[in-house]
């Protein structure tokens, strides 16, 4: 998931007051005053933007309040295991008495938790892989990036340490209204987390009886793949329910032994790979044959297909077009645009 941050900005009345004090530029002295004033004003506004606290930083910490997106709740790290060269499986536990009431625990189908780094007072969203269980446990697959302050901070924490979270915050809501024949989820890196949450909460439980799902995941190398228990569960369910769920894993490179052992696809998720998996679902065979005519290759109709994309920004841009301004959805581009998908069929998490 992409990071979310909300910053307070100066009011328009402040700008009007500042504008009214601009000197007359007709004289040399006025020009000098105008230049100096502009520099000082720019510096002040830049400092305001960089150092004024985020709105989220003003959210209070309520130690005995139930889990809520409006305030921070203390929780404890109960497990932290290495998983690959730059990732860890981290489990947080919220006291059961702080969980919402049973009739309020129907969280959105894809939701996130905001974790606050107390050292620098910054928060970032992370997706619990299997939601929250009755014991208040939430598991996260968290990668450590060079410029990821909160991720590096979490990697430094030990079992028993206390951190603060606020949740749940809805990322995307699944509606089983029979609008879509297919839902294709495309992920890269830790972007698989929201789709695994959807798998755990919706797909594996047979909540939707009509829609078919496909999950295409990409990692740079086998060592950077998601935890094995996640891959095994997805693969097993796909093998047992091929009419309902398909799962494909792609890596940039690997040797022949790894390919045979892990059944991986070499290469990135491009138009050819996506089209191939859509064909497998859309037609029973690669060719449509008519009497006394040459074989005609089956065409893919994506009008009843929903595409969900989550991963690093370069991957998202290549598959579905870049995010818009301030991480809005932006127009559909990339591979999905060439397949004919529209903005109503594509959602970038």
TrEMBL record:
<dbReference type="InterPro" id="IPR017938">
    <property type="entry name" value="Riboflavin_synthase-like_b-brl"/>
</dbReference>
<dbReference type="InterPro" id="IPR017927">
    <property type="entry name" value="FAD-bd_FR_type"/>
</dbReference>
<dbReference type="InterPro" id="IPR008333">
    <property type="entry name" value="Cbr1-like_FAD-bd_dom"/>
</dbReference>
<dbReference type="Pfam" id="PF00970">
    <property type="entry name" value="FAD_binding_6"/>
</dbReference>
<keyword id="KW-0285">Flavoprotein</keyword>
<keyword id="KW-0472">Membrane</keyword>
<protein>
    <submittedName>
        <fullName>Ferredoxin reductase-like protein</fullName>
    </submittedName>
</protein>
<feature type="domain" description="FAD-binding FR-type">
    <location>
        <begin position="70"/>
        <end position="175"/>
    </location>
</feature>
<comment type="similarity">
    <text>Belongs to the flavoprotein pyridine nucleotide cytochrome reductase family.</text>
</comment>
<dbReference type="Pfam" id="PF00175">
    <property type="entry name" value="NAD_binding_1"/>
</dbReference>
<dbReference type="InterPro" id="IPR039261">
    <property type="entry name" value="FNR_nucleotide-bd"/>
</dbReference>
<feature type="transmembrane region" description="Helical">
    <location>
        <begin position="34"/>
        <end position="52"/>
    </location>
</feature>
<keyword id="KW-1133">Transmembrane helix</keyword>
<dbReference type="InterPro" id="IPR001433">
    <property type="entry name" value="OxRdtase_FAD/NAD-bd"/>
</dbReference>
<keyword id="KW-0274">FAD</keyword>
<keyword id="KW-0560">Oxidoreductase</keyword>
<dbReference type="InterPro" id="IPR001834">
    <property type="entry name" value="CBR-like"/>
</dbReference>
<keyword id="KW-0812">Transmembrane</keyword>
